[in-house]
Amino acid sequence: MSRISKAFANKNAFIGYLTAGDAGKKEFLELIDIGVNLLEVGIPFSDPVADGPVIQKAMARALKKGTTPEKTLDIVREIRKESEVAIVIFTYFNPIQKNLALFLQKVKEAGADGILIVDLPLEESDEYRKLCHQLDLDPIFVIAPSTPPERIEKIAEAGRGFLYYACRKGTTGARSGLPEDLRSKVAAIRKKSNLPIAVGFGISERKTADEILTIADGFVVGSYFVEGNRTLC
Q1: Which of 22, 27, 51, 113 is catalytic?
Q2: Dist CA 74 CA 72 (whole Å)
Q3: Catalytically annotated residue among 22, 40, 138, 217
Q4: What's the pLDDT tens digit per position in 207-220?
Q5: How far, in Å, CA of 100 to CA of 121, rounded?
Q6: Is residue 231 one of the residues assigned to a domain?
Q7: Structural domains of the chain, count
Q8: Comparison of pLDDT for 193 and 170, the residue scoring more
Q9: Range of the domain at 199
Q10: pLDDT in tens, 43-64
Q11: Residue 51 annotated to the active site
């Protein structure tokens, strides 16, 4: 069983995101200490259009420190020395596209289990998915509230590990409550895929996370952790 599969084994995956460079090994290990069993390690990028102001500022701070994709993988290597937690690289395509095959090989060698390229369209992902399969890396894909059923089916066929359902339109950022259509949207995804489903975008409260776990297989906390919080109230 892969580390990602283990994270979802009890249908209660707790996924935590931090931006590499803005956070180092210490901060990622802090997330493990509070129960996170799948880390999203973000590669900083200068134009993170899918992210809200909290993560945008974190990426700007990381870039100011000189954080590169290679330095991000150094952090993954350090985490892997101390933990068998599942690790997914979160990135935009621009920082890694120059030599994609070599980069993905380094991702695998560093100890990561999967990769999510937030702005790579499914239609342009054939080579990426082929390389991931060769390396036994899970390519993670995002489904949005506006994704039509026929596209959900294609994404489900292409993805491995789990599907990330971004439950709100717009950019990332901590919010209260959940969309009223969450249950029906997750049910629609389940009709198209047997992969575990993690719900993200805006989660900052334990009550919200627990509610998600009655519907989906895991939840993602990003901006709330980036702000320095280490508990869900």
Answers
A1: 51
A2: 5
A3: 40
A4: 999 999 999 999 99
A5: 15
A6: no
A7: 1
A8: 193
A9: 3-226
A10: 999 999 888 899 999 999 999 9
A11: yes
